[in-house]
Amino acid sequence: xxxxxxxxxxxxxxxxxxxxxxxxxxxxxxxxxxxxxxxxxxxxxxxxxxxxxxxxxxxxxxxxxxxxxxxxxxxxxxxxxxxxxxxxxxxxxxxxxxxxxxxxxxxxxxxxxxxxxxxxxxxxxxxxxxxxxxxxxxxxxxxxxxxxxxxxxxxxxxxxxxxxxxxxxxxxxxxxxxxxxxxxxxxxxxxxxxxxxxxxxxxxxxxxx
Length: 209
Hints:
This protein is α/β, with parallel strands linked by helices. The protein has a single domain (2-208), classed as Rossmann fold. It has four helices and ten strands, in the order E-H-E-E-E-H-E-H-E-E-E-E-H-E.
């Protein structure tokens, strides 16, 4: 399979690239900085400058974009819209590295993780921006998207256990009552989804077993 990973300089993207390459995928990384990934095919290009032509011929595109400062949070929406627009009407799948704040905590889907009183105030603007982008993504019936939310505790340097539990729209806890996953295990789930393609136009979630 031919896979493009966009915003490839981040840690989550790096794990996804390595996982995909270890499974024999042909990976092309797109990033703004110099290549700091395992990808042998690297295109130094800003996400907003990527065109339909750049992504032609890929089976899947992974969007690993992240913005953390107040003045850039809106780019979660604008970057995702840009990628959707250039993939519109194609069979190329778009898989999004999502957030956990928008996962629901009740069966009625009226309360989200970010609504809970113990959710850190510092992360609320980010969670709000990512939830908005997901809401907008749900309206795109012209793109074969899949949004993958990590567990609440998303650990950059956590171990690769090789095991995870696949969930849906609601926050899932493991047998220890934890909502935790490493970037490495998240990457396994991402690449599994690229391979199997079982969740078109759905949000799924993952937690360490």
